[in-house]
Write a structure and sequence with these properties.
The chain is of the alpha/beta class. The strands form three sheets. It has a three-stranded antiparallel beta sheet. It has a three-stranded parallel beta sheet with strand order 4-5-6, with no helix packed on it. Strands 7-8 form a two-stranded antiparallel sheet.
Length: 159
């Protein structure tokens, strides 16, 4: 930015960061690559912006993106936001070639969406795992048994 004053550069940066905050009010989860493309700046610039915004307590950086910490419009949205944050955090502990068990909790099942590694085996009695999207490297094994509502839990053995 040759020939541009410090004040102008600072204004560009503030404007870009404000735009990120506005975008996160509409969609509380963003990806670095998408922000880079939309805002027309490098990935490292977006990462610096996200680091600054995290220091301001406006978001939490995640692998490849960020999640807003700004209060959603209603309590139900806020609960869902924290559930996604917990699932994303828990997924970060899953490593390649791991085998994990997920119970009938819908919160625990969200981990499937955020797992980034390959060759992971997930054993679950949660019938809702059938309808979830997850990476091709994740193998889901259902325990079997009778499907019980309302949790869609697979329990017992078949006669």
């Amino acid at each position: 930015m040759r020939g541009v004053t410090y004040e102008k550069r600072k204004s560009f940066v503030e404007s870009r960061r404000n735009r990120i905050v506005e975008m996160m009010q509409e969609n509380p989860e963003v990806r670095v690559d998408e922000l880079s493309q939309i805002l027309g700046v490098s990935l490292i610039t977006i990462r610096r912006d996200l680091q600054y915004l995290e220091e301001q307590k406006l978001l939490v950086r995640t692998y490849g993106g960020a999640v807003s910490t700004m209060a959603p419009k209603n309590m139900k949205d806020e609960v869902q936001l924290y559930r996604r944050l917990i699932a994303r955090y828990a997924a970060a502990f899953v490593a390649e070639n791991d085998t994990i068990f997920i119970n009938t909790s819908s919160n625990a099942l969200q981990i499937l969406e955020y797992m980034e590694c390959d060759n992971v085996t997930v054993i679950t009695n949660n019938g809702k795992a059938i309808g979830r999207e997850y990476r091709p490297g994740v193998n889901v094994v259902l325990t079997g048994g009778e499907l019980r509502h309302p949790k869609d839990a697979m329990v017992g053995i078949l006669p």
